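Database export, one record per block. Field names are fixed; values are copied verbatim from the stored entry.
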Amino acid sequence: MSRFLRDAHNVLQERRFLEEQRVQKVLNALLDDDTYSVLNAEKVDLRANMSRLASQNKDYSELKARYDEIVAKMQARMQELGYVEDDLKRKPVCPLCNDTGFIDGAECGCLKQIVYARLRAHCGTLATDESDFDKVDLSIIPQKDRESYENFYAILKLIADKFPLNKKKILGVFGAVGVGKSYGLSVLANNLMQSGFSVLVINSAEMNSLFLKMHLAREADKQDIWEPLIECDLLVIDDLGAEPTINNVTANYLYCLINERDEKTTAFTSNLPEDYLRTKYGDRVFSRLCHKQKSILLTLNGKDLRLN
């Protein structure tokens, strides 16, 4: 069970606990009232006696009449004390699953929403909250460029549908500033998080800072820095190549990162040509990023959509 799913179960457990505590607090307040307490004691006795007579097939109509009278008096006393009968009933946030997270053995939507919220909070900055590829509006794309966008979103949808069993683990998206690279990968990120997968979105400058931090950190602290980059199901590196080069850090740690994520999916965007990545990072990194059998490399044609 992922830590995000564990967190979600803990949230539901906390909800149940708080609601039980609320009901108990109301009950304690009522039982502290002498009038209500005496009525409640008589009610308990009457119910026990009615059950005994019923088991003996004897008439208990008189007891039932007295029982109903006591219940009415208790309800009236509750109102005098500022309560209603519903205050003694547990009121779950999700009435479908009663805050258990499951309906007939299947995960309830409330559990998935909590998991998504936790995943989203740890994801990083996204360009959109959209998660449905079919709802992305491509009508603003000039007709001459639209084919590359249709191909882009078709591939993103295929990745999401097969995730995490995709054979190709690297997705590189090239194109000019503002053409929608980050937007498309944000849709993919949201879609996967809706399915419970963990995603980390980080721009190349932030990633480079983490590399330097890890390089300088004590050995005991390195894992805490490195683990989020390695463990997420999808890592999105935005604007790869734009970060400054730190000797013995940038290329070396990027190679280690890609190498350690060999079985997990990594996506990146870049405003720079493929050949620039070879020049910047060297052949070792370039061959990992742009491996023809393990990578999908796409180019979005067109100009900055934000200026359209």
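Remark 1: Residues 3-88 form one domain.
Remark 2: DSSP finds eleven helices and seven strands in the chain.
End of record.
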